[in-house]
Specification:
The chain is α/β, with parallel strands linked by helices and 261 residues long. The chain starts with 6 loop residues before the first strand and ends in a 10-residue tail after the last helix. The protein is built from ten helices and nine strands. It has two domains: 7-201, 2-enoyl-CoA Hydratase, Chain A, domain 1 (Alpha-Beta Complex); 205-251, Lyase 2-enoyl-coa Hydratase, Chain  A, domain 2 (Orthogonal Bundle). Helix 8 (205-218) runs antiparallel to helix 9.
Length: 261
């Protein structure tokens, strides 16, 4: 994987780990970081799971307004360009990856950082983690797909609370609301995330990707359309070697050994 300036991309076996690597700025995400995340996930290769994490004591504190004074005072045109050209393609690429994505959150996941975390299929957070839509506090509106993701995850009332009141949602409450998959003790975060990641990386990768696709499409389709999409996905999954292995393992009363194909 190519060298990057604001992230690290490390491959270990079937797992690609992308680390936001600006700890001195709480991993604030300028447009250049969004571009690098996009590049890393578009070159996922044959990895079977992607992990997103932040270096140091934060996941991501948002877009780097403090580090780019010109952008923060020149109004909406620059923000529109950055969203259209950098942040939005990155979020779309994350959401459409055909393999599971896991976000590991400690400290703040704020602004665009919240959107990056929630674009994953699984979000696991330590108790120190929190999720924040701070846009109302600075006279801006939520972005990075949060206006789409939040009401689907936690309903309109709680999404409105997050967006309009700009309140922190700590990890324990985030789990209770259904915003994230799981909250764990801070000292257990690494081991819990590793266990989840390895389980996904050893799963039936093509089938998991098809589940992800039909789930996302089903959020904006009627039942009949989704039934048809599931049938088509099942035809594809049913013709894989992993499906044969799964059936044989079931019949032989043993654990399946999936190869991702």
């Amino acid at each position: 994987m190519s060298d990057f300036e604001t992230i690290r991309a490390d491959r270990s076996g079937n797992i690609l780990t992308i680390t936001l690597d600006r700890p001195e700025r709480l991993n604030a995400c300028p447009p250049a970081m969004a571009d690098e995340i996009f590049t890393a996930i578009r070159n996922v290769g044959d990895a079977r799971t992607v992990v997103l994490r932040g270096e140091g004591r934060a996941f991501c504190s948002g877009a780097d307004l403090a580090g780019n004074a010109e952008m923060s005072v020149t109004g909406g045109d620059r923000a529109y360009a950055s969203l259209s050209q950098c942040y939005n393609p990155m979020i779309q690429a994350l959401a459409s990856l055909p393999v599971p994505v896991v976000s590991v959150v400690q400290g703040p996941a704020a602004g665009i950082g919240c959107s990056i975390a929630l674009a994953a299929d699984f979000v696991i957070a330590g108790k120190s983690g929190y999720f924040l839509q701070a846009f109302a506090n600075i006279g801006l509106v939520p972005d990075g797909g949060s206006s789409w993701m939040l009401p689907r995850l936690i309903g309109a009332a709680q999404a409105t609370r997050m967006m309009m009141l700009g309140e922190k949602i700590h990890a324990e409450e985030a789990e209770r609301l259904g915003l994230i998959y799981k909250c764990v003790e801070d000292d257990a975060l690494e081991s819990e995330a590793q266990a989840l990641t390895e389980r996904l990386a050893n799963g039936p990768t093509l089938a998991l990707g098809l589940m992800k696709q039909t789930l996302h499409e089903g959020l904006s389709q009627d039942l009949a359309t989704t039934l048809g999409a599931e049938a088509r996905a099942q035809r594809i999954a049913g013709n894989t070697q992993d499906a044969v292995e799964g059936a044989m393992a079931f019949l032989q009363k043993r654990e399946a050994e999936f190869k991702g194909n």
